[in-house]
């Protein structure tokens, strides 16, 4: 499933603090974490941090429901404030979404520049559990799998 995490672009984050909410975010997968940029005031960030947990899903888009494949994830999010993890995560994000570099003036991947220019912060969705959904195996084609690294 690491191929799915590298190939797909959208992670749908889901929260329930106090009410249910979901939000799609672009993400880059690196070392078992899904990194995304978002406003610190966004509902999905504030609710996830307040509840200390959230859920996520990544799936391939298919016209036939019998072909749906994806991951359902349970975990937490953390703000990434810098250091080697921030540098590596931004580099992975720009590798996956090179057009984002133009939004910050084409400068080298620097977390401080990103947060200032985009008014967004870098977060990591950290999965605690992962379930593989594969409707090619039937409607009960869901099973827990080891966390992708």
Verbal overview:
There is one protein chain. This protein is α+β, with helices and mostly antiparallel strands and 149 residues long. It has one domain (2-145): Electron Transport, Fmn-binding Protein, Chain A (Pnp Oxidase, Chain A). 28% of the residues lie in helices and 39% in strands. The chain has helices at 2-7, 43-51, 83-96, 100-103, 111-118, and strands at residues 10-16, 20-26, 28-30, 33-38, 54-59, 69-79, 121-134, 142-145. Strands 1, 2, 3, 4, 5, 6, 7 and 8 form an eight-stranded antiparallel β-sheet that branches. The longest helix has 14 residues, at 83-96.
List keywords for this structure.
alpha+beta, 5 helices, 8 strands, 28% helix, globular
Q: Could you provide a short overview of the structure?
A:
The chain is 28% helix and 39% strand.
* CATH class category label: Mainly Beta
Please state the oligomeric state of the protein chains shown: single chain
Low-confidence stretches: none
Q: For the record, give the distance between the C-alpha atoms at the N and C termini, rounded to a whole number.
A: 10 Å
Main sheet characteristics: 8 strands, antiparallel
Helical segment tally?
5
Q: And the CATH topology?
A: Pnp Oxidase, Chain A
Per DSSP, what share of the residues sits in E-state strands of 2 or more residues? 35-45%
Q: How would you describe the shape?
A: globular
The structural domain count equals: 1
In CATH terms, the superfamily is Electron Transport, Fmn-binding Protein, Chain A
Structural category: alpha+beta
Gyration radius from CA atoms, angstroms = 16 Å
Mean pLDDT: 88
How helical, in percent, are the residues? Answer: 25-40%
